[in-house]
Amino acid sequence: MNVSDKILEKATELYTQFGIRSVTMDDIAKELGISKKTIYQYYKDKSELVSTITKYHFDIERQRFSGLSELSNNGVHELVLLSTSLRDSIKETKINLLHELQKFYPKAWKMYEKFKVDVMKDSIIKVIERGKSEGYFRPSIDAELVAIMRIEQVQTFLLGNLVPRSKYSTEEIQMQLFDHFMHGLFTIEGHQLFNQYTTNSKNNEEQN
After folding, report:
1. How far is residue 116's CA from residue 147's CA, in Å, rounded to a whole number?
2. Is 33 left (phi over 0), alpha (psi -120 to 50) or beta?
3. Residue 190 in contact with residue 76, Cβ under 8 Å?
4. Where are the domains of the chain?
5. Which CATH superfamily groups domain 1-44?
6. pLDDT lower than 50: segments of the chain
7. Burial of 101 (C-beta count, 10 Å sphere; 0-12/13-18/19+)
8. What 8-state DSSP symbol labels residue 147?
9. Are residues 87 and 178 in contact, defined by beta-carbon separation less than 8 angstroms?
10. Secondary-structure class of domain 50-207 per CATH
């Protein structure tokens, strides 16, 4: 691993553990056993370091969402796979880091906003249109509007204080929201097919 990658890895580790604002370039240099001057040879300032880490993170996230259509048998199956990707992505998201990006690192925050539109929103639109064409999702649904509502709903609950975190985990909140969102899409046939996937998934979990 080269020096640049070691800096990214250590900075990511420290930011995740202590928060971005709490970790200085001196802290990173000390942990790596190098001088702060060495870090500045690769990253001109902390903002550039944060932006580089953010880009790397969302490049990985894009891979998580890619190819779901090809892996799935139909729109309902793709929605199940998409829900798993969304759940895993949210589960791994550090809420405090998102808050810091939003407040203090506008370039990195724009990457998050772009990811919402180019990946999350686009994935939801495509699966809804597919499900409608197959007769599994209600034809009256406006795919783009529903996708926007869904993404903004997720962000509101991630960054807002609407739900007591002492009572509900982030994963529990998102599972409830997604369950409500998902069942609002289906036709009768879609519900039946979804129940089949749910039953098979539970049986596989019990066997394992």
Report:
1. 10
2. left
3. yes
4. 1-44, 50-207
5. Homeodomain-like (1.10.10.60)
6. 206
7. buried
8. H
9. yes
10. mainly alpha
